[in-house]
Design goal:
The protein is α/β, with parallel strands linked by helices and about 375 residues long. The chain has helices at about 15-25, 30-40, 45-60, 70-90, 115-130, 145-155, 165-185, 210-220, 225-235, 250-255, 265-275, 300-310, 315-325, 340-345, 355-375; strands at about 90-95, 105-110, 135-140, 155-160, 190-195, 235-240, 280-285. A 7-stranded mixed β-sheet has the order 1-7-6-2-5-3-4, sandwiched between helices.
Length: about 375
């Protein structure tokens, strides 16, 4: 049986660790206020007073938190995410939850567009669909201080150790993958992981087969075959679709720069802008679990995840217009009737041509992926 204590350094808080973390968070009321103020900056005295009341309300809710799932449901899904949706989202919808069983754990593998919102919004959709909530794989590069670490691990965060020497990183990846498989198959606890390391800045959502390979390697010493590991993992592909990406220009500029030129606090700035920036409509689409047939290679599994994500991705007028615009066609003109294309293009004015073109192709690429998958079907 799984020894959860052997994973204490990477697993979400449990037991006394939850109570200790809650006490530390409560002691930082100012930080809570700063976070709320970042989402919705107060402009009047009445708004400042309302912010103070919200902080007091959160602190009072924390008095009743004894598990990370209570934190997820009460604080994150119950307070913070609805506020983010209220301030920066025009509609939040989801589909496909009918394919899931609410007493079964799954390994949710999704496309990755926003550093922290992707997994948080999937959890919100699961909560709204009365499904089991999930733990979430989070890179340790984001855990910049104790307060941030406490918030993540109170929210079901599983630490991915990325700042390690190569050999140690490989061994830690095996250990992390073992945690995934054992949590799902032995503890009946759902987990989320992105389909590849890092966000998809070009809008092309593809799965790194190495993630699937590591699941098997973590269980190989136990004599468990590849197809059995996949069966036990209950993989569910999830497509997260944003109508507008608040970081479209930032991603384009970052991608066109050398990776070695990454700026200090770039991830922190991206998290902040992603949380409060306008996103328009958001749709979460749950695929069907990969338990209906036998899979023999990591590539087969990765291809099926890609197929479901790319076909289930909700294409918005922004995507269809960008596709027609960059290809100088009107193929999808009926999909963006009434769309304010001039306002959309103004997002990229005063930007270098290569930045503008990259950003527009970022919106167009989900259409290309959808068409490519459809072509395979026909």
């Amino acid at each position: 049986m799984m020894d959860i204590n052997s994973y204490r350094d990477i697993a979400p808080y449990r037991g006394q660790d939850v109570l200790d973390a809650v006490a530390r968070v409560k002691a930082h009321e100012k930080a809570i206020g700063q976070f709320l103020g970042m989402l919705d900056p107060p402009r009047t005295n009445d708004e400042r007073l309302a912010l103070e009341e919200s902080v007091k309300h959160i602190v009072s809710l924390l008095d009743h938190i004894t598990t990370y799932e209570e934190f997820q449901r009460t604080i994150t899904a119950g307070f913070f995410l609805p506020k983010i949706v209220e301030k920066s989202v025009t509609a939040f919808t989801h589909s496909g939850a009918e394919n899931l069983k609410n007493d079964r754990a799954y390994l949710y593998i999704s496309n990755h567009r926003d550093i922290i919102l992707d997994c948080a919004l999937i959890d919100l959709a699961l909560a709204q669909a009365d499904q089991m909530l999930m733990e979430m794989a989070i890179g340790d590069n984001l855990l910049t201080n104790q307060f941030v670490t406490d918030l993540f691990k109170l929210n079901g965060g599983v630490v991915v150790k990325r700042t390690l020497p190569l050999k140690e990183k490989y061994l830690e990846s095996l250990r992390l993958s073992a945690y995934f498989v054992e949590s799902i198959s032995e503890r009946n606890q759902s987990i989320w992981v992105a389909q590849k390391s890092g966000r998809s800045k070009d809008g092309i959502d593809t799965t790194n087969p190495a993630i699937i390979k590591m699941l098997h390697l973590s269980q190989k010493m136990k004599g468990i075959g590849f197809s059995e590991v996949i069966k036990r993992s209950h993989i569910v592909p999830v497509a997260v679709s944003y109508e507008y990406d608040p970081l479209d220009v930032n991603k384009a500029a970052e991608q066109l720069r050398s990776q070695s030129d990454k700026r200090p606090y770039e991830d922190v700035i991206s998290m902040s802008k992603g949380l409060k920036g306008f996103k328009g409509r958001i749709h979460i689409s749950f695929g069907t679990p990969l338990t209906d047939r036998r899979y023999d290679t990591p590539e087969e599994v990765a291809n099926e995840i890609d197929r479901q994500i790319q076909l289930n991705y909700k294409l918005w007028p922004t995507n269809y217009f960008a596709y027609d615009y960059v290809n100088n066609t009107t193929i999808f003109a009926d999909r963006y009737t009434g769309f304010n294309d001039e306002a959309f293009l103004r997002r990229f004015r005063f930007r270098r041509e290569e930045v503008r073109d990259f950003a527009l192709n970022m919106y167009a690429n989900p259409v290309r992926s959808f068409l490519s998958q459809q072509a395979r079907i026909s």
